[in-house]
C-alpha cells in the first residue's frame, strides 16, 4: 500500500519505528501519522460507534471529525489522523464514548505555559501563513499555531498547478506554494510557530485576548495577544446514503492526504461522488498513483468543475455519469462495492437503473463547509450564506468580525480557493497590525491592492456567486 514511485512526488520517510495495534507490531516511519501507518498495514477500522458498534474509519484526515478517535498509550479520544507515530506507541480502536483512565486528569489551564504575542493566528494554511508573514512585516510579533504536524493546510497535498495570476503563484503546484510560504515565514524572527497545537477556545481578559490550546494531546498552552486571526479552513461534507460510515468512505481531501502527503494508497478501486474541481482533480491524482478510478457520479445534469479537468479525466478513460447518485455502500468491516442509480428531474432515483461498482474506496467530493466553531464560541456574529458554503462570520472589508480584534481569513470565512485565502490572509494580517497601531498608514495601500486583486479574481464566471455571498456576509456599511 505504500507508494515507492510517483511521477511528481518523492516521499522522504523518517526513521523506521514500531507501533503496536492491539498488541500487534506494525512498521511505521517517523513523521507519518498513526492513521497513515495503520492504513499502510491494511487496517481500516479505527473506531466503533456508540450504539450499534459499527466500524468507522478515516474520513477527513485533518483532525476535524471523530471518525478516527483511538486510544493511544491509554489516552482516549486521540485523533489518529493528525497524531504522529512514536516508537513503541500502543494503539487500540476506541469503542463508543471515551472513558478516562483512572489516574488521568484533564489538563489544567492554570498550569499552562503562556505565550505572548501582539497577534495570535490560528491555522497555518495559505490564509494563516500569509496573515503571519504580512503582520510580521508590518511590525507585529506573531504566534501561529496549527494542529497538524506540518504547515501549509490543504496545500501540502495539492500536486496540480494552480490557475490565476503569476503574482498569486499561478502555474506553481500547491505543495510547492506551501514550501515557499513556510520558508518565508521561518525567515521572520518575530514569528513563533507551534505545530500539533489545537486551539480549543477563545476568551477575553481585560485588554487581552486568550487562545486556549493543547499541544501534542497533553500540554495546555495559553496564547495571549491583542488581536486574533482565525484561519482554520474548512471541513469536508458527507451526504446521506445507506452505510455511509463504512471504513473506506473518505472525504476527497483525506485521500489526497494519505496519497500525496504520506505516499500511502487508499485502496485499489475507487468510485468518486461529485464532479466539481475537487472530484476531477482527485481522479487524475489517483490514476497518477496507480489506483483505478471506476467512475465519477454527479447528481447535477452537468459537470461542475473546469472543462480542462473534466476533459483530462475523460481522456484517461474515466466515465463521468451525470444525473447519477450513490444509493448505498456494501461491505462488512469495509467497503466492498457501491450501488448507484440514475436520477429523474425531481432528484429521485429511477427504479431499474441501479448499477454496482466493485470498489474498495468511495471518495466523497461533495463540498466543504467553513470551520467557524471558534469564531462562534468567541461570540462573533454568524450568518448562513449558501454561496460561501454554510455559516460564516459577519465581517468588514478588513476581515474584522463583529468582535473587535478578531479577524477571519480563508476557507473559514467562506469556501473559495487558495488564491483568495492568501489575499484575505494578507488583508487580515495587515489590518490587525493597523488596528493595534503597530503598522503605519503606508500599509493601507497594501490592503487596497489585495482588495483589488480579490475583486479581479472573483470577477470570473466561477467567482460571481462568491461575490454575491460576500455581500451577504458583510457587516451593513462595512
Ligand atoms: C482537492 C482540492 C483541490 C484544490 N485545488 C485548488 C486550486 O487549484 N487552486 C486554488 O486556489 N485552491 C484550490 N483548493 C482550495 C484550497 O486548497 C483551499 O481553499 C485553501 O487551502 C484554504 O486555505 P485556508 O488557509 O483557509 O485553510 P486550510 O488550507 O484548510 O488551512 C487551515 C489550517 O488550520 C488548521 N486548524 C484548523 N483548526 C484548528 C484549530 N482548532 N487549532 C489549530 N489549527 C487549526 C488546520 O490544521 C490547517 O492547517 C483545492 C482544495 C482541494 C481540497
Describe this entry's structure for a reader.
There is one protein chain. The protein has 478 residues and is of the alpha/beta class. The chain is 23% helix and 27% strand. It has helices at residues 34-40, 126-137, 174-187, 252-261, 277-288, 307-315, 373-377, 418-435, 444-457, 464-473; strands at 16-21, 24-29, 47-48, 55-56, 69-72, 75-79, 90-95, 113-116, 119-122, 142-145, 191-194, 197-205, 208-215, 219-225, 227-230, 234-236, 249-251, 269-273, 292-298, 320-322, 324-330, 337-342, 355-357, 361-364, 368-370, 382-385, 390-393, 406-408. The strands form 7 sheets. Strands 1, 2, 3, 4, 5, 6 and 7 form a 7-stranded mixed beta sheet that branches. A 5-stranded parallel beta sheet has the order 11-10-9-15-28, with helices on one face. The mean pLDDT is 94. Bound molecules: flavin-adenine dinucleotide (FAD). Flavin-adenine dinucleotide binds at residues 62, 122-128, 145-148, 153-155, 158, 160, 162, 198-199, 231-234, 252-253, 256, 278, 281-282, 371, 410-412, 416-419, 421. One of its GO terms (molecular function) is oxidoreductase activity. It comes from Thermococcus celer Vu 13 = JCM 8558. InterPro entries: 2Fe-2S-bd_N, 2Fe-2S_ferredoxin-like_sf, 2Fe-2S_ferredoxin-type, 2Fe2S_fd_BS, FAD/NAD-bd_sf, FAD/NAD-binding_dom, Metab_Enz_Cyan_OpOx_G3PDH. Keywords: Oxidoreductase.
Amino acid at each position: 500500500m505504500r507508494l515507492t514511485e510517483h511521477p511528481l512526488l518523492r516521499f522522504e520517510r523518517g526513521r523506521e519505528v514500531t507501533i503496536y495495534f492491539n498488541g500487534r507490531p506494525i512498521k511505521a516511519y517517523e513523521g507519518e501519522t498513526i492513521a497513515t501507518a495503520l492504513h499502510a498495514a491494511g487496517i481500516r477500522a479505527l473506531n466503533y460507534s456508540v450504539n450499534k458498534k459499527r466500524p468507522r474509519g478515516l474520513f477527513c484526515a485533518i483532525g476535524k471529525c471523530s471518525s478516527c478517535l483511538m486510544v493511544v498509550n491509554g489516552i482516549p479520544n486521540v485523533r489518529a489522523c493528525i497524531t504522529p507515530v512514536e516508537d513503541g506507541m500502543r494503539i487500540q480502536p476506541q469503542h463508543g464514548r471515551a472513558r478516562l483512565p483512572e489516574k488521568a486528569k484533564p489538563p489544567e489551564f492554570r498550569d499552562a505555559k503562556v505565550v505572548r504575542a501582539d497577534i495570535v493566528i490560528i491555522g497555518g494554511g495559505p490564509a494563516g501563513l500569509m496573515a503571519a508573514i504580512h503582520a510580521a512585516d508590518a511590525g507585529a510579533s506573531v504566534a501561529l499555531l496549527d494542529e497538524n504536524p506540518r504547515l501549509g493546510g490543504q496545500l501540502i497535498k495539492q500536486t496540480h498547478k494552480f490557475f490565476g495570476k503569476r503574482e498569486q503563484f499561478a502555474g506553481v503546484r500547491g505543495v510547492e506554494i506551501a514550501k515557499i510560504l513556510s520558508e518565508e515565514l521561518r525567515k521572520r524572527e518575530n514569528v513563533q510557530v507551534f505545530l500539533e497545537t489545537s486551539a480549543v477556545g477563545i476568551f477575553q481578559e481585560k485588554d487581552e485576548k486568550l487562545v486556549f490550546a493543547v499541544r501534542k494531546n497533553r500540554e495546555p498552552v495559553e496564547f495571549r495577544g491583542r488581536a486574533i486571526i482565525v484561519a482554520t479552513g474548512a471541513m469536508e461534507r458527507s451526504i446521506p446514503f445507506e452505510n455511509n460510515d463504512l471504513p473506506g468512505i473518505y472525504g476527497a481531501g483525506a485521500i489526497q492526504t494519505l496519497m500525496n502527503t504520506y505516499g500511502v494508497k487508499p485502496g485499489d478501486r475507487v468510485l468518486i461522488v461529485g464532479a466539481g474541481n475537487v472530484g476531477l482533480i482527485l481522479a487524475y491524482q489517483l490514476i497518477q498513483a496507480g489506483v483505478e478510478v471506476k467512475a465519477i457520479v454527479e447528481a447535477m445534469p452537468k459537470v461542475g468543475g473546469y472543462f480542462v479537468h473534466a476533459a483530462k479525466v475523460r481522456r484517461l478513460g474515466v466515465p463521468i455519469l451525470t444525473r447519477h447518485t450513490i444509493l448505498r455502500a456494501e461491505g462488512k468491516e469495509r467497503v466492498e462495492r457501491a450501488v448507484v442509480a440514475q436520477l429523474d428531474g425531481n432528484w429521485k432515483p429511477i427504479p431499474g437503473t441501479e448499477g454496482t461498482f466493485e470498489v474498495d474506496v468511495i471518495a466523497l467530493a461533495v463540498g466543504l463547509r467553513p470551520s467557524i466553531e471558534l469564531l462562534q464560541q468567541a461570540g462573533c456574529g454568524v450568518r448562513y450564506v449558501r454561496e460561501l458554503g454554510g455559516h460564516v462570520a459577519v465581517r468588514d472589508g478588513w476581515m474584522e468580525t463583529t468582535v473587535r480584534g478578531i479577524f477571519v481569513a480563508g476557507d473559514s470565512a467562506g469556501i473559495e480557493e487558495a488564491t483568495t485565502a492568501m489575499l484575505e490572509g494578507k488583508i487580515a494580517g495587515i489590518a490587525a497590525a493597523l488596528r493595534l497601531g503597530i503598522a503605519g498608514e503606508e500599509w493601507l495601500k497594501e490592503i487596497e491592492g489585495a482588495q483589488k486583486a480579490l475583486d479581479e479574481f472573483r470577477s470570473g464566471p466561477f467567482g460571481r456567486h462568491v461575490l454575491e455571498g460576500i455581500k451577504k456576509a458583510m457587516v451593513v456599511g462595512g
